[in-house]
Amino acid sequence: MFYRDAGALKTSYAQDAALFPLAFDRRAMIALVLVAGVVVPLVASDYWLGSILLPFLILSLAAIGLNIVTGYAGQLSLGSAAFMAVGAYAALNLVARVPALPFPLSLALAGLIAGLVSALFGLLSLRIRGFYVAVATLAAQFFIEWLCTHVPWLLLDNHSGVVSTPTLGWLGFEVASIPARYVTALIIVAGLAVLAMNLVRSELGRAWMAVRDHETAAELTGVDTVRAKLSAFAVSGFYCGVAGALWSFLYIGTIEIEAFSLHRSFQILFMIIIGGLGSVMGSFLGAAFIVLLPVAITNGAAVFGSAIKPDVIANLELMIFGALIVGFLILEPHGLARLVSHAKARLRRWPLRY
Amino acid sequence: MSDFSFFLEVVVGGLLSGVMYTLVALGFVLIFKASGVFNFAQGAMVLFAALTFVGFTEYGLPYWAAFLVTLVVMMALAVGIERAVLRPLLGQDAMILFMATIGLSIFLEGLAQLIWGTGVRGLDLGIPDDPIEWGGILVSQFDLSTAVMAAVLVAVLSVFFSTTRIGRALRAVADDTQAAQVAGVPLGFIWAVVWGVAGFIALVAGLVWGARLGVQFALTLVALKALPVMILGGFNSIAGAIVAGLVIGVSEKLAEVYLGPFVGGGIENWFPYALAVAVLLWRPTGLFGAARIARV
Asked: What is the C-alpha to C-alpha distance for residues A286 and A269, in angstroms, rounded to an integer?
């Protein structure tokens, strides 16, 4: 009744190209961002803000990054955590060695460096395809991990392997308290998410999807596949790099390579499988799912008291994750995002069934 | 000791550890050949097999009985995987199948440790791990036995593939799935057999690696060691897996000994990958892989 295309007449090109053509969607999105940015920091506890919402936002950003190269451009990457590491280490060096830079610029530069490194490994995808690309990104993962532990300069000549991150500050405003970190992350993630949504429906985004759907056919129809693949890797690296920097500076407060292991790469891959391959909104849904599921399992197990041992819970968690991955791929390969769009289509017809 | 005999010792050590990689890679190649699935869960299957074997021996079963029981479990697992994962995903994109096997591998890791516990268990196969001197160089007796075991395994497999009815059907499926299906080869059965054989290879690999590293979660990581072997050898060549396993083993050891000191060591994690990727740039389908033909 309230969710209708009818009457939403477009009278200008700008309206036609709007990200959310329906007024209801637009208002809902604005309301969501306002609630997330204003109401939530006021009412949520530090536990929810700092331990659930903050990692959720940052991992969503990384998931968007992986979704760009894997979901949109079809190049399976198992090295997203490594590009997060590049972003984190680059940001540390920029913040510590060039204190004059305002931190948003440092983060952006760190993202650019990560994008460059990612494009460098993306060069391999020009020659090799399919699984081979996945293995090449695995090579990136191991090589960057090794580099980060064997070149002390990257860690400000610190030999312990762990460095505490300096507090970010700009214009006299310190990003120290948990609400401040949360709001900073929210602004950056929301901005980059809007950028990503526009990017994937631009000419570049269409080229990515053409390469994903059929590379040879894309090439024959005049799509510049070299540019498409390299740009997908670069943009993906940028998003992952910024996410990595935020992860270190705002969430864990240290720079260490353990935070960016292969395990993290898989975690991000699971997010986009469950959330939806080739969907920015799905990246958020998947990240929320993966962040919340362990919390839900732990709380669910707590109902049984101490009857269930922690290692049993850990193994059950692995099994549930694995079964969910397989289940989603079988039942709904487009993930939660597709379920949401089904629900929306249903809402449009409501109260009629067809 | 002269430089040359040290070099030889490193090479032989590398060859023998390459055999261990080959053992794991064989399971990958087999499944890829027959069903076009890049089975990331092979590492989890190695863990699962080793844990099951050790678990049954702890119940007091002799080794041969535990081996047989584990084999039956792995076969049942293979049939289950075929039913629950592969069949519903029939005809899907290879990348989707690959991601499904990543999910499968996590599931198996959880299941194996849920049943048998998370602790590290020792596994003594009764093969001494003392080095023996052989033509002036030291060779690990254990590694030598492993190499013999791997050779026997490959011989048994090639006899199985070339002489039995199931083996021929299997090769037919590997050559052309659709044609084989038209000729009446029961695809589901063949896949179950392939996964069963891969489970058998996983069991052998699990025993060897388990005896070396202890039966523990880290066994799943041997799958990551096998990936460069696969890309170097090509995904669908058993001979390629063998040669590439040896090449990777030797070059990894040589690089660690002669290159490692200059860059701070610890390069064995990524060096095989770098080598494999370098070869890929020169030959995009690996040393022995079949050429890829794209159809529009």
From this structure: 9
* ipTM value for the complex: 0.82
- Residues B96, B24: Cα–Cα separation, whole Å: 23
Per-residue pLDDT tens digits for A7-28: 777 888 888 888 887 777 888 8
Is some CB atom of chain A closer than 8 A to the CB atom of B110? yes
B118 touches B217 (CB < 8 A): yes
Interface check for A293 against chain B (CB to CB < 8 A): the answer is no
Least Cα distance to B191 among B85, B63, B59, B56 occurs for B85
Alpha-carbon distance B6 to nearest alpha carbon in chain A (angstroms): 27
**Residue A181 near residue A195, CB atoms below 8 Å:** no
Query: DSSP assignment of B117-176, as one string?
Result: -SS-B----S----EEEETTEEEEHHHHHHHHHHHHHHHHHHHHHHHSHHHHHHHHHHH-
Which of A352, A336, A281 is closest to A28 using CA atoms?
A281
Q: Which of A131, A149, A323 sits opposite B98 (nearest CB)?
A: A131
B284 to A333: CB separation less than 8 angstroms, yes or no: no
**3-class secondary structure, A3:** coil
Q: Is A256 on the interface with B (CB under 8 A)?
A: no
SS3 A277: coil
Residues of B in contact with A134 (CB under 8 A): 98
A76: nearest CA in chain B? B95
CATH code for the structural domain at B3-282 = 1.10.3470
Judge contact between A147 and A135, C-beta under 8 A: no
- Residue B204: name the closest of B240, B239, B243, B152 by CA: B152
Structure token pair of residue A28: 């809902």
Domain boundaries, given as residue ranges, for chain B: 3-282
- Token pair in block for residue A130: 């399919």
A103 touches A95 (CB < 8 A): yes
Mutating which of B85, B280, B282, B287 best tests the A interface, going by the most A Cβ atoms within 10 A? B280
Q: A205-262: per-residue pLDDT in tens? A: 999 999 998 888 888 998 898 999 999 999 999 999 999 999 998 888 888 888 898 8
Which residues 216-275 of chain B have a CB within 8 Å of chain A?
A: 224, 227-228, 230-231, 235, 263-267, 269-270, 273-274
pLDDT tens string, chain B, 296 residues long: the values are: 567 777 887 888 788 888 888 888 888 888 887 777 888 888 888 888 888 988 888 888 888 888 899 999 988 988 888 888 888 887 777 778 888 888 999 899 889 888 887 777 777 766 666 677 766 667 777 777 878 888 888 888 888 888 888 888 888 887 777 888 888 888 888 888 888 888 888 888 888 888 877 777 777 777 788 888 888 877 777 788 888 888 888 888 888 777 777 776 677 778 888 888 888 777 766 666 666 555 54
CB pairs under 8 A between A and B: 140
Residues of B in contact with A216 (CB under 8 A): 294-296
Residue among B85, B264, B265 minimizing CB distance to A326: B85
CB B199 within 8 A of CB B46: no
Report chain A's terminal Cα–Cα distance, integer Å.
14
Substitution target in A76, A124, A126, A131 with the highest count of B β-carbons within 10 Å is A131
Q: Residue A108 — very low, low, confident or very high, per pLDDT cuts 50/70/90?
A: very high
Report whether A140 contacts B276 (CB < 8 A).
Answer: no
Q: Considering only the beta carbons, identify the residue of A138, A149, A325 that sits closest to B273.
A: A138
